[in-house]
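Worked example

This section walks through a single chain of length 111. The input is the sequence exactly as stored; nothing has been trimmed or padded.
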Amino acid sequence: GILVRKLRKHLGDLRGHKIAVWGISFKPKTDDIRESPALSLIDSVLADGGHVSAHDPIAGENAAKLYKDQITIVDDQYEAAKGAEALILVTEWRPYQSPDFERLKDIMARP
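Given that input, the structure is written out below as tokens.
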């Protein structure tokens, strides 16, 4: 998809790169991950040898069941971004609408 093409454009080969994903459900306020655009993004990053650290206020458990130990699911959105070279906002959950950009700049590898 377009997000993976943009990642490759900015990072080159995704092998070994940590990509943070905010939002795994297909829409806010649900734990339903079926048909979520996050899944194809995560699959592409993994196929390219990248690492995914993700956060979702409700759907994290379902993603953990699906991906098992292939990705890291965290309880805090900023923990997902820590050390990441890119942050992709997939689902427009309210907590993601006004991120602390200074905090992201301090914790990300390549803000």
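What to look for: The chain has a mean pLDDT of 96.
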